[in-house]
Amino acid sequence: MTGLETTNGSRASPEKAPHDSHIASFGPFSLHDKARLLERDGVPVKLGSRALDILRLLVSRAGDVVSKNELLAHAWPGLVVEEINLRVHIAEVRKALGDGKEGARYVTNIPSRGYCFVAPVQRIADAPPAASLPVQAPGVPEMPAPVLPHRLERMIGRDDVVREVSQRLLSERFITLRGPGGIGKTTVAIALAHELSAQFDGQVRFLDFSMVRDAALVAGTIAWALGLVVHHSDPTDSIVGYLRNRRLLLVLDSCEHVVEVIAGIAERIHQQAPGVSVLVTSRESLLVEGEQIFELGALEGPPQGAGLSAVEMLAYPAARLFTERAAAAGHRSEIADEDAEVLAEICSKLDGIALAIELAAVRVGTHGLREMVTLLDGRLKLEWRGRRTAPPRQQTLGATLDWSYGLISESERIALRRLAIFAAPFTLQGATMVAGEDDRAERIVDSLEQLVAKSLIAVRPDGAVTRYRLLDTTRAYAAQKLADSGEATSIARRHAHYVQHALEMTAADAGDGDQASRSRARTLLFSDARAALKWAFANDEGAELRVPLAGACARLFVELNLLDEGRLWSSRALTMLDDSTRGSAWELELQATLGHAFMFTERNSDQAETALRRGLEIAEALGDRPNKFRLLARLNMFYRRTGDFQELLPIAFEAERVAREIGDKAGLAGAKALVGVSYHLMGDQAAAQFHLAEGVLGLGALRGAQPGHFAYARMPQIPLARVLWLRGFPDQAVDCVRPLTGAATPQDAVMHCIALSWSASLYGWVGDWSLVEQMAGRLSTHAASHALAPYQAVATGFRAQTMIARGELKEGIETLQAVLPRLHADRYELYASAFISDLSQGLAELGQLAAGLRILHEAIARIESAGEAFDGPELLRLRGELEARGGDVKAAEASFAASIALAEKQGALSWRLRTETSLARFRRKQRKAKPLDGLAETYARFTEGFETADLQAAREVLDTVSK
Asked: Shortest CA distance to 143 belongs to which of 223, 87, 227, 220?
């Protein structure tokens, strides 16, 4: 009699018996020792293989302290492993058990000694299965117990697969484990054979067909494995008859080269032997009745660029397999945090293929982790040798792929090697244009289907489009076959033509159609665009494609924020213009990209202006309205940055006229933003507010515009926030700017820099210097990551402003004195006057009044030469402050009066409040009559923002004088 033996000797009822013997129960958990399974309330709990081994040892010694060395030796027998690996797996165990939640305690750390399992444990022995399988028919002789292939001591990242396929085999009975070579199908199949052996009373037959080259021998091999003696050429009937009343698991491994024969036999067994479960491993499906496909995927690898630590990397099976195999091969150095990103890149290059990971890992000790990244880019990885005891087809990646290549038809080989030219996932259209034959384009479709079916090409849906991809190792192998075929040049030319065609077809500026899908399609072409450009510019055979291809790619670089790369390719292509390409749409795109990129990555140079003007000239000649708008917007941006504000309105009005002709809602809203920001910088804040508010009405259309749209990222809220502050609405201004600088970074890198810069200026106006400092830090980081050097200088200026505001005068002044010459040299004047304002005040505080006044006079002269500017009133006020400090009363009064008049003319109530506050202090000091009248009147015009710095300062002056 069996049952649950508790600590007091009582027994549980038989109905509650667990599923196998040697079970430990604690809390809601059951640990099945033989089945290597942890359950919570009868539901399997996900736990890695090593973590499970650690838990089994701790539970078996419940109440005792198990030393760290003993745990390491148990989980990593024969290996020298760092203690951090143990901590990672202990953490995994605790997480799986919910240790610490709602008071539950299971595993505790005993400092300097080890770990202890502290929860009460009940033991269950010899329990029968809860659900019975088909039983052996009476009178049928028992088969001898088979010898299974050796099971790997540690199988990483496949525990969930083994559990799922085990359950499905018991219910569905016929599973094909499909996947590319080296993915680990055989390893999983062997694990399943051992895992299910008890369920089938030891009756498991594992047949490796990799060495059976003649399909005629397949049936005989199965018969021999079953112990049958047959006397005719086709023993299939005997096999089926023998199995009809038996319970057995039949594992048929590596069947892709004999798939036709295997398919027929497996189908008959499934139909006529209900007690037999069949597991097949193959690189392609059998395509027979009853077959259920389980696609064995790649081992999950850590994401690149996620900033994970070395310990966090080990949570991903691909990284864990790599580090463990490297350690087993003698690499004793622990992966450091600074190498974590390198490890992520290696795992990505190896595509999560277990064999590739193992072959690469054993070479880390020889080459080092960072050198491995370079080695993986070449063909050398195909020849790396693995275990001597592995089957010949699995000793190198090249051998694995030779095996697959030898099994496909000639037309499939041609398609595979031609498709190796793609650097990224491709579409059926791309495959047809690059790898198809002109007279038989449909043949590539058939070949592609076969290559997918045989696991040589991966397939994935992408919205309404299906995309195909060669794994990196397969691509390297097929690329060598392409080079050997003599077709490499012609296929590279086809590929470049395809990239040009695809980019031109998806670059349409019309608002119709699915812009998001078009934008994604363009993004996915980037790797191929870069590869095609490199080939065209490096080979004479691509000379005639250089300008058209670079012209098609130019806008893509802008859309992807790769301005530095766009500048380099555009510059090279423009030197190669001839009569056939000069004045073309390709030159237009190259000039537009060059001017845009120069402006943001280098300086606001004559070269940038010339390129933008030349692009505009071509757009007008070609009647290309969307590009005309785009170039007008970029010129408007150029003159904003250089401080030539008198140029802004004519350009903005022309852009508005073009937008009306196009009739696009996003374009019209973008045009309103251009007009509004132009009025703002020129000092007409009422007009600016009116036009920007109109632009905000079209915000929905602007947000829906994708990076390729001509009005993309023309966001009116950025300047509107500053205009609202100037108009006397500080609270609304802050509310407007907050969403623009949230945690999520928008797609357009330049526009994000603008949002951060203008937000920093606004927060400085309201006196929130901690937020100015935060915006400056984010701006510096973001600009550096996108090679936008001018914005790094701006970020430095904002940091210097923060220093001065906090009283760190010397450091702030030195920083501004270093950054302002750079801004002037780059003709970047948009922020210079604000930085000069703070520099002048800092110098005055340090007793250098004359120097402060001198730079203020220069700044005022500079903006007056370009017409009125939005910050003119503030510069005049600050000049008045310094003049008053120097005792020049008459000059100070004149400066204050000019500031107030200009602020009123501009509709800038907040500038006027500042000046009235300064004037009130000045008049009180001069003992003038009614010193507060102007300030009181201006203060009364405000309806909000009373907690901001300027309004608090004004209130303080009013209250002080009135006492």
From this structure: 227
Show the tokens assigned to 584. 């073309």
Residue 381 near residue 375 (C-beta atoms within 8 A): yes
Q: Give the angle subtended at the CA of 129 by the CAs of 125 and 130, to the nearest 5°.
A: 115
Q: Which helix (H) or strand (E) holds 206?
A: strand 204-208
* The 65-67 sheet, strands edge to edge: 65-67, 114-117, 107-110
pLDDT of residue 866: 63
* DSSP string of 729-746, one letter each residue: -HHHHHHHHGGGGSSSPP
Q: Are 76 and 85 within 8 A, CB to CB? A: yes
Mean pLDDT calculated for residue range 314-324: 84
E strand or H helix at 895: helix 889-906
Tokens 């390709």 — which residue? Answer: 586
Q: How many residues does the chain have?
A: 963
Round to whole Å and give the CA distance between 542 and 115: 66
Collapse the DSSP code of 588 into the 3-class scheme (helix H, G, I; strand E, B; otherwise coil) and give the result.
helix
Kindly report the CA angle at 280 between 444 and 253, in degrees rounded to 5?
Answer: 95
Plot region of 930 (φ>0 → left; ψ -120 to 50 → alpha; else → beta): left
- The closest alpha carbon to 428, from 381, 380, 385, 461, belongs to 461
Grouping H, G, I as helix, E, B as strand and the rest as coil, residue 525 is coil
Query: What pLDDT does residue 141 have?
Result: 42
- Nearest C-alpha neighbor of 535 from the set 576, 574, 571, 488: 488
The two structure tokens encoding residue 785: 């990551």
How far, in Å, CA of 761 to CA of 719, rounded? 11
Distance, in Å, from the CA atom of 560 to the CA atom of 602, rounded to the nearest integer, reads 18
Residues 125 and 5 sit within 8 Å (Cβ to Cβ): yes
Tokens of 960: 């002080």
What is the pLDDT at residue 457?
A: 86
DSSP state of 21: S
Please tell me what DSSP assigns to residue 196: T
Tokens of 24: 């430990």
Choose between 27 and 218: higher pLDDT. Answer: 218
Please report how many Cα atoms fall inside a 13 Å half-sphere around the Cα of residue 373, on the Cβ side: 11
Q: What is the mean pLDDT of the segment spanning 171-197?
A: 90
Which amino acid belongs to residue 584? S
Return the pLDDT at 132. Answer: 33
pLDDT at 17: 32
Write a three-state SS string for 915-954.
HHHHHHHHHHHCCCCCCCHHHHHHHHCCCCCCCCHHHHHH
Q: Tell me which residue has tokens 């190896």.
A: 350
**Using CA atoms, how far apart are residues 399 and 393, in angstroms rounded to an integer?**
5
* Residue 335 clears pLDDT 80, i.e. is over it: no
Exposed / middle / buried, residue 808 (Cβ in 10 Å: 0-12, 13-18, 19+)? middle
The alpha carbon of residue 213 and the mean position of all alpha carbons in its chain are separated, in whole angstroms, by 45
Q: How far apart are CA 491 and CA 405, in angstroms?
A: 20
Q: Which two tokens stand for residue 212?
A: 């059976």
Is pLDDT larger for residue 403 or for residue 806? 806
Going by C-beta distance under 8 Å and a sequence separation of 6 or more, which residues neighbour residue 927? Answer: none
Work out the angle at residue 711's Cα, subtended by the Cα atoms of residues 670 and 606, and round it to the nearest 5 degrees.
100
Q: 924-939 pLDDT, tens per residue? A: 888 877 788 899 999 9
How many angstroms separate the CA atoms of 394 and 375, rounded? 20
User: What global pTM score does this model have?
Assistant: 0.69
The 10s digit of each residue's pLDDT in 275-296 is: 999 999 998 889 899 999 999 9
Q: Are 64 and 85 in contact (CB under 8 A)?
A: no
Across 826-830, average pLDDT = 90
pLDDT tens sequence across 887-904: 999 999 999 999 999 999
Nearest to 107 by CA among 47, 157, 57, 154: 57
Average pLDDT, the chain: 84
| Phi, psi values for residue 287, rounded to 5° | 60, 50
Which residues touch 765 (CB under 8 Å, ≥6 apart)?
722, 725, 730, 910, 950
